[in-house]
Specification:
Layout lengths: L1 H29 L10 H11 L6 E5 L5 H8 L3 E5 L3 H13 L6 E4 L13 E5 L5 H11 L5 E5 L10 E3 L2 E5 L1
Parallel strand pairs: 1-2, 1-4, 2-3, 4-5
Antiparallel strand pairs: 5-7, 6-7
The chain binds S-adenosylmethionine (SAM).
The site of S-adenosylmethionine has 22 residues, from helix 3.
Length: 174
């Protein structure tokens, strides 16, 4: 009987923990100007082909979510830097990097991308809502070095002409 009660207690504890984590995740995102939506696999292929990363280059993802773009960039031989404000997503992306054996090639900053160091970036990834794009355009053009490639997912920069686009993915050069 005591054994069964212990098992039951452990199951209830795990379920409660899971609910608390999910609650924290969704509540946190509700207050963000830019909530979490992960990029689909097919789009990641287009993003990576537009980014044309070379070994040793640095890619920065502004709002790196669960780290899927960071992992793809690191698999291309780049050093991938993420800025992510949701601590749960930072933990998930660090875990992803670890299980893929890419921890040495990925760094995730638990801080706002508005403070990102973009001077180091050869490539920048942007995936944001339409209303945030004017501010992000300004940030990227002010902080990136000339020649930086910027790959934008879904909502284009309002004031710049992309070099090319395909299926809602846009490539710009600063
Ligand atoms: C649309 S998702 C993109 C996720 C990822 N880049 C991808 O393509 O799968 C935007 C992410 O930005 C994060 N975010 C929102 N505001 C942020 C901020 N000021 N600084 C850093 N990250 C932020 C959200 O938590 C979310 O994970």
């Amino acid at each position: 009987m005591a054994f069964l009660l212990t098992i039951l207690f452990i199951i209830v504890f795990i379920l409660l923990l899971f609910i608390v984590i999910l609650f924290f995740f969704f509540i946190f995102d509700l207050f963000l100007e830019l909530p979490y939506v992960g990029t689909k696999r097919k789009r990641i292929e287009t993003i990576m082909s537009f980014a044309a990363l070379k070994k040793g280059e640095t890619a920065v993802d502004l709002g790196s979510g669960d780290g899927r773009l960071l992992i793809s960039a690191a698999q291309k031989g780049a050093f991938a830097v993420g800025y992510e404000i949701n601590p749960l997503l930072v933990a998930i992306s660090s875990f992803h990097a670890k299980i893929k054996g890419l921890s040495d090639h990925i760094s995730v900053n638990k801080s706002s991308f508005w403070k990102a160091d973009l001077k180091i970036a050869d490539v920048v990834f942007v995936y944001a809502m339409r209303k945030t794009m004017p501010k992000l355009e300004k940030l990227v053009w002010e902080k990136c070095s000339k020649g930086t490639r910027v790959v934008v997912n879904t909502n284009p920069f309002p004031g710049k002409k992309p070099q090319k686009s395909k299926d809602g993915i846009y490539l710009y050069k600063v």
